[in-house]
């Protein structure tokens, strides 16, 4: 039988500043703890953080509906074809409710799971909180504040604070994985800013020097750190590719999408369906890293997933459940089973907790019903009404209306108000953009030349 000899302290890998691999030598949790400790001492206060509050948030969309039922099933005869060509079907505008009176708080230092069926309003909520541009047919009501500042007041600089990971992968296919991440880092400011250096001066001279060394090393090697965290080492020099160009796999491309939005000085991270194409082990590792980011670096992290495994579900502090745009639950993960059991629904031992929660408010909920003196809620609106009468909702409202922590307000004044709209200057941004475009243009021409050679070789007559 082979025995395992433990590594001695002298041979064990230690965290270092010379490369991304050295920074990640002891894992992301140790790295985040190390950075948080060093920076916290130099700041003389807590790490900058952001509290997100939204009250009575409603989103509606004006959708054009075509009434074409009369000709839908007609035979394709000449008269019917002419009728469809010259007589346009009637159109009418229907108002669709996407979010209905949703209120809540996403606090720093917590990681929240956003659950809901397709069309439940998850993506709409994340887009609203991230400040993404909305279509003209969208109407928004309600208040959204970041550290007691209205969303509209910081809308232009909001992308500097809030990272939003889209569920669609959009990349330049001819760029390699490492190049894609490096350009994202460059556009967000690849060097430690003068403002950040000034803020890291509230400790002792030794503490300030250590914090500057740690922060500078993170900025210098951040693309490599992200590659290590997301497990992209083996494909970092492979082009990303797309549907027409062979590159990395779909799961690796999804990890590139996640990593691309990690750069910059972000206090809030919003992720929409990042597990698509990933296996359970990769999903767990990525979300475990995000949990460490939330807990150690005091970030506000909200992640929308469709069907998380029990192991992934256990990583989250809070869970928010949306159904048909209505809020069915928002509170601690540890209390969610007990809450719905009090409404007359019990999760079977063989059923995953996330699947059980997603079935509530649908036709699948009957399999979980237990005997109860009063009638169980059926529709999403009934679940929303029941939640508004719960003590968990009351605690959420207390948090929503509570005075802001003076530390958050001071953080807003010192770190967020001076933030410029863009991380790079106009000249630096133009040079980075030009360098990237020249690379893309050269590789596209190179690919076109190879295609032409292959085409000519294929058309050559056989001897």
TrEMBL record:
Membrane topology, as annotated:
Multi-pass membrane protein
Q: Where in the cell is it found?
A: Membrane
CC annotations in GO = membrane
Is Secreted one of the keywords? no
GO molecular-function annotation terms?
ABC-type transporter activity; ATP binding; ATP hydrolysis activity
Extract the InterPro entries matched here: ABC_transporter-like_ATP-bd (IPR003439), ABCG_dom (IPR043926), P-loop_NTPase (IPR027417)
ABC transporter domain spans which residues?
A: 82-349
Keywords of the record, alphabetical order, are: Membrane, Transmembrane, Transmembrane helix, Transport
Write down the superkingdom of origin.
Answer: Eukaryota
What coarse category fits the chief subcellular location reported for this protein? membrane
Q: What is this protein called?
A: ABC transporter domain-containing protein
């Amino acid at each position: 039988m082979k025995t395992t000899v433990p590594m001695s302290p002298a041979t064990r890998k230690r965290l270092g500043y010379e490369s991304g691999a050295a920074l990640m030598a002891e894992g992301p949790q140790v790295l985040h703890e190390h950075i948080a400790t060093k920076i916290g001492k130099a700041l003389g206060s807590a790490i900058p953080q952001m509290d997100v509050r939204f009250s009575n948030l409603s989103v509606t969309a004006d959708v054009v509906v075509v009434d074409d039922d009369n000709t839908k099933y007609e035979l394709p005869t000449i008269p019917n074809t002419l009728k469809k060509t010259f007589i346009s079907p009637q159109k009418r505008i229907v108002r669709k409710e996407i979010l209905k009176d949703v209120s809540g708080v996403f606090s720093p230092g917590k990681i929240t799971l956003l659950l809901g069926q397709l069309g439940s309003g998850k993506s709409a909520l994340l887009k609203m909180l991230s400040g993404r541009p909305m279509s003209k047919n969208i109407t928004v009501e309600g208040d959204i504040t970041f550290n007691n500042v209205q969303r509209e007041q910081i809308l232009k600089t909001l992308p500097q604070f809030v990272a939003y990971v889209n569920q669609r992968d959009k990349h330049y296919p001819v760029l390699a994985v490492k190049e894609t991440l490096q350009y994202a880092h460059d556009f967000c400011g690849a060097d430690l800013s003068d403002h950040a250096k000034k803020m890291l001066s509230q400790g002792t001279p030794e503490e300030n020097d250590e914090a500057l060394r740690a922060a500078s090393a993170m900025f210098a090697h951040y693309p490599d750190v992200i590659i290590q965290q997301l497990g992209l080492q083996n494909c970092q020099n492979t082009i990303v590719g797309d549907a027409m160009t062979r590159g990395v796999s779909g799961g690796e491309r999804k990890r590139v999408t996640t990593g691309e939005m990690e750069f910059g000085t972000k206090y809030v991270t919003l992720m929409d369906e990042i597990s698509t194409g990933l296996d359970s082990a990769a999903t767990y590792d990525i979300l475990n890293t995000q949990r460490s980011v939330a807990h150690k670096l005091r970030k506000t992290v909200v992640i929308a997933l469709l069907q998380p495994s029990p192991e992934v579900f256990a990583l989250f502090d809070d869970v928010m459940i949306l159904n048909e745009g209505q809020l069915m639950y928002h509170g601690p993960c540890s209390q969610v089973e007990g809450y719905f059991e009090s409404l007359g629904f019990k999760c079977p031992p063989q059923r995953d907790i996330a699947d059980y929660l997603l079935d509530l408010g649908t036709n699948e909920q009957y399999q979980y019903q237990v005997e109860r003196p009063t009638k169980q809620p059926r529709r999403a609106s009934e679940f929303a009404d029941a939640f508004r009468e719960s003590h968990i909702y009351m605690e959420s409202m207390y948090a929503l209306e509570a005075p802001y922590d003076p530390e958050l307000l001071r953080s807003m004044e010192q770190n967020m108000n001076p933030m410029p709209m863009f991380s790079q200057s106009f000249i630096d941004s133009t040079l980075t953009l030009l360098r990237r475009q020249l690379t893309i243009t050269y590789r596209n021409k190179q690919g076109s030349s190879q295609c032409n050679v292959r085409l000519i070789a294929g058309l050559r007559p056989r001897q």
